Amino acid sequence: MSYEIPMGPYHPGLEEPYKLDMICEGETVRDAKLHIGFNFRGIEHLAETRNYIQVIALMERVCGICSFIHTLTLCQAMEKLTGLTPPPRAQYIRVVMGELERLHSHVLWAGIAAKLMGFKTMFMTCFELREKVMDVLQAISGNRVNYAMNRIGGVNRDIEDPQSILAMVEALEKEMTRTIIPIFTTSKTATSRCAGIGVLTTEKARSLGVVGPVARASGIGQDLRKEAPYAAYSEMDFTVPVVPDGDVRARLLVRALEIMESCKILRQALTKLPPGEIAPPGDGSKFSFVTGTATARVEAPRGEVMYSVSWKEGAKMPSRVHVRTPTYVNMPAVRFMVQGARLADAPLIQAAVDPCYSCTDR
Amino acid sequence: MSTTEITPAPIANPVSAPYSEKIGVFWYGDSSLNVRDVVRAMNAVGARFITITTYELPANGGFRLEYHWDLMGVLLGFTFPISGKTIESIYDLCEAADWIEREVHEEYRIDFTGREYEPLLLRGGGVCGVNLQKEVLQ
User: Fold this and answer.
1) Is the ipTM of this complex over 0.85?
2) Can you list the positions of beta strands (E) in chain A?
3) A49-357: what fold?
């Protein structure tokens, strides 16, 4: 006999509001349906009522974790419509901020995953590290969450003392190498709890078009930083970790390895930070847009973010802003990940996607 | 229009005609394409479906749907103007389009024919769906 167990939209096993209706036989999940939209905000419509300065502040609020990435993608699209190219120093600062945000996101996720594994000491350790990543972000931007760093044609704040930031990053890397990395790559606790569950095969991952660490943990080596480099990524030396297993442990492993790669990129970007301006001359309050639609894509911590921005010449407000977030394409995969899984594993499996409902309910 | 004709052959090189690059996107130049033929062509070359962007045209002129695919980092775009509110679904050919089609349906009441879909439950206040349509918002 099968029965349906609803999980959410408000449930202790879920960090954010969505609903997973699971069809179970005994303790085994046979199928699941997902529902989103409980906090849908209509941000794309709001964007059409904001001018080119205000829209940056608005889109920064699509996501609390990837706020920099959202403004970066938006600004890159608007730069295509204004013909502005950010100076090299601004491009490097964008790389630094983007990688710090990836560290922040992955460490936060690691903490939540540890909690769902029943490994609460690790949860505390990860959240302590997260605070330290936010200290670095604050040292650069003055803010801990919404950084207000991007502007059309550059960035708003310089990294005046890259050496001091580098010292903070190196201390952070040392701490992560001592704690998170060995726990998530070699510990028996993590392996026994995560190996073999929530499997998404390479074939299914391709079919669903999943992105980011979820794709890379299913053997698909896609990463826009390599395939379609933006900012200063073409000048960075790094590898894209790919694990073929497709289970929760593979997702754990990919993110742990990505933390190390992000530290490597940060070291390079901070060491090679070129001199010069961080934005075009002027006060940054007046821009001329050409009529058209521009699209920009960025590799966010959870995968590809894409913005399509449409403008009419002479207008102050966009005529359309469309946002495709990574969680929106990764979430449907949860249905297939939980099929055949134990009910008790469902919270950890859905969390392994690193879902962001702020992005989803944009 | 056959599938072979719109297959973007040697895509690793700069994409050739009938594609033309415009602000970073390689657009296919023929707007009389059938959306399902495009999907078959994209599937044949292993392109990854990204999204559908909907533009509401002024003066009740219908909609313009832009479909995007990624092929080894190259962004490909296909435009489909629709005068009414229906277009063929691609869900049976491209599983990745499921939630995207459902979202467009709820936001603009566009029907993707040939499929069944459950609501995603997007809401504008207490109203389910149709959040972005200008005639509804005004």
Assistant:
1) yes
2) 2-7, 19-25, 28-35, 150-151, 154-155, 292-300, 303-311, 320-324
3) Cytochrome-c3 Hydrogenase; chain B (1.10.645)
